[in-house]
Fold this sequence. Notes:
Helix content is about 45%, strand content about 10%. The protein has helices spanning about 25-35, 45-50, 50-75, 85-90, 95-110, 125-150, 150-165, 180-195, 205-220, 230-235, 240, 245-255, 265-270, 275-285, 315, 330-345, 370, 380-395, 410, 415-420, 435-445, 460-470, 480-490, 535-540, 595-605, 620-625, and strands spanning about 295-300, 350-355, 360-365, 400, 430, 450-455, 475, 500, 525-530, 545-550, 565, 570, 590, 630. The protein is elongated and about 95 Å long.
Amino acid sequence: MAANPGFFTAWPWQRLGNFKYLLLAPFVGRSVYRFVNRENGKVDLANLVVIPILLVRVAHSLFWISWARFQTARSKRRIVNKSIDFEQVDRERNWDDQILMTALLLYLGNMFLPGATYVPWWNTWGVVLTALLHAGPVEFLYYWFHRALHHHYLYSRYHSHHHASIVTEPITAVIHPFAEEFAYFLLFAIPITTTVFSGCISVASVAGYLLYIDFMNYLGHCNFELVPKWLFRVFPPLKYLMYTPTFHSLHHTQFRTNYSLFIPLYDYIYGTTDKSSDDLYESASNGKEEMVDIVHLTHPTTLESLYHLRLGLASLASKPYTSRWYVWAMWPFTFLSLLLSRISGSTFVVEKNRLKSLTMQTWAIPRFSFQYKFSWERDTINELIEKAVLQADEQGVKVMSLGLLNQGEEINGLGELYVRKHPKLRIRIVDGSTLAAAAVIQSIPEGTEEVLLRGKLSKVAFIVATALCQKSIQVVTVKREEFEKLKLRLPTSFGSCLVLSNSYTPKASSSEILQIVKLSCLPPQIWLVGDGLSAEEQGRAVKGTCFIPFSQFPTKKTRTDCVYYSTPAMVIPKEFENMHACENWLPRRVMSACRVAGIVHALEGWKEHETGNVVLDVEDVWCAALSHGFLPLPSPLAV
């Protein structure tokens, strides 16, 4: 919202949310009715193509969002090296409002403007006239209107909303208050209405003009330089006819220069060109290599999780991952992504962040969670992970943390496979188990005297059990197999704290119980749970039980009368830069413990790997994380 909102700043359909597209229903119904009841076989193309144009513009916008985010995470040609936050993502969430408005106005124009019906696909004179009118009147009027918007009165009431984004993304281009966006439409309508009244309008001229506006808008608001230098060498006058991302970025950082729409000529004529425009273009085009210190290696979880990645849909990526029904409507793209993941032979960069003096990237293995379960996929997945490790090592990366199933014990022994295979690795590999265990331990409410350990045991579970026994907290298991595994891993002095109990006995394993120790009339109310906890098992918990996962993936919630904790994670420091996407199911500005562990490992300069059976000091790792500004998650009980 603008600093001091003026009249008609809010969009009329703001309260409708995604239901705003229902405003098109009457016009779509009219279009279908006219097509079915057409006379003499005549088809009103201008009426029929409105929705296809809308869909193409939406797809075009989504492409720019994803592609630009991919480039800013890996490109050396970044222009403004500052952070984007969740506030900006929320402010730019309504980027499609202007597309909806254009569709509604096109329908109205088709209904009421003489000559706007039954238009041909192509009219050469109409295309030429549109281009000339844009380069002349539209660009000229926009230039002076834009300068007027920077007057204090209009800027504080309208245009400041757009300039709240110092670091721009492509969709920043269309983030304006309703009144301002409507004024822009009136400007862009000059070529369209002129071709209507002159009888040379065509579907190509209208659709092409709208896509040209979108393309140039998005190009100019990228935060990396993508216009090649050879274009200006081949045709030097082009610098006056086409702006670049660096040219427009100066308008967002300096505010009083480079006002032009797409053609910088008017800035040169009226002396408002920023003096550093050429130098910034040169330096951004040449780029600057930035050393990456930390890499977090993750992978998509479900097929639809692709849209929740930072490279996916911005509105979904900025919220914790949950399944949404409308994402299934995009199944053709999802299926294509699955095919591409089978073909792809390397990782891809998801995001880039900074903390203090460290630069970090998140890389993703092009495989989904279900593929890690297939035995015939494991060799390929291992090759992908190993390739990523060696690539990061070659680039001088200090630490790589293995996220989710990339640290699977069945796949690579918690990363130990790569350490043994490549003993001269300079990069440190971290599975983050120690910090994850510390996060679990810190989540256990004070005063707890016993916990029930359920689900598939893991390295984190063994670390947690050891630490709890050290504190004389009883760790209860209900399966002989789990009890024996824990007994082997724990020092013999802790034997009295490890208990096999019948307080909770799964039906399938009642014959496995060797020892019955009755601790109380009720089973423990703190459950530490791993993967594989069934709904039936959850059903045996007493009301108010706290489920605290030590697994990488969250526990499926089947009880409304119990408390479910987050997977091991920590809140990131305020100075952590460029965090504007949620990590899977975690809340905003919360990071998985294994990812935090890699950052802490690099900040502390620790030289050892944390893989296989290697366990660091739990208290030291936790204190180190806190010292660098990471905080424990608030307890759900406190909330």
